[in-house]
Amino acid sequence: MNIVICGMKHCGKTTHGRFIAQRLNCAFLDTDELLEAKYFKLEKNPLNSREIFNLHGEDYFRTLEAEVIRELIATAAADVTRVIALGGGAPSNPKIGAELKQLGFFVFIDHTPEILYRRILKNGLPPFLRGENPREKFLRLYSERKRRYIELSDLTIEFREDTPVRSAGRLILTKIEEKIHERQHLR
Fold first, then answer.
1. Is the pTM of this model over 0.85?
2. Which domain holds residue 88?
3. How many domains does the chain have?
4. Mean per-residue pLDDT of the chain
5. SS3 per residue for the chain
6. CATH code, domain with 31
7. Considering the domain boundaries, does residue 186 fall inside one?
C-alpha cells in the first residue's frame, strides 16, 4: 500500500516522507523528482520542477505530473509499502482528477499559513506566487488547496508551530500506524 504525504509547499512532505520510509524500511518516492526524471528522459535537459514549470508553463507541467501519478497507480501493489511525497499542486491537477485517490492512503500535513509562507519566502517565491500581493495569492491558494487535501486525506495532522523534524516525523508515523490499525480492525 502506498502512503501518500500531501500538503502545501514546505509543509515537510519530502522530509517527513523520507523519515517515515526509513522507519518502515520501504521505498520513498517524490513525485516532483519523478517528474524531473521523466522530463530528462524526454528532453535530455536536467531541469528541476520549478524550471520545467517556468520554461513550459503549467499545462505542460500538470500533464507530466498526471503521467507520473498514473504510473505510480499502475505499479502499486497491495503487499508492498511505498511512501510517496505528492507535489503540492497535484491534488488540484484537473488532468488526474478522481484517479488520484487510487494512489493510496493519504496523509495531509497542515501547518499554519504563517509558518508555510515564511518557509516559502526563505527559498524564493515560486512562479505561481509572483506578481502583486504574493501573500494574498498564497492565502487564497492555501485555502483552495486545503479543501482538496482534506477531501483526499485519510488522516490530517496539524502543526500550529514549527516542530523539530524528528518529533514531527515520529508523531506522523504513530498517527499513520494508529489509523491503519484502526481500519484493519473495522474490516
1. yes
2. 2-180
3. 1
4. 91
5. CEEEEECCCCCCHHHHHHHHHHHHCCEEEEHHHHHHHHHHHHHCCCCCHHHHHHHHCHHHHHHHHHHHHHHHHHCCCCCCCEEEECCCCHHHCCCCHHHHHHHCEEEEEEECHHHHHHHHHHCCCCHHHCCCCHHHHHHHHHHHHHHHHHHHCCEEEEECCCCCHHHHHHHHHHHHHHHHHHHHHHC
6. 3.40.50.300
7. no
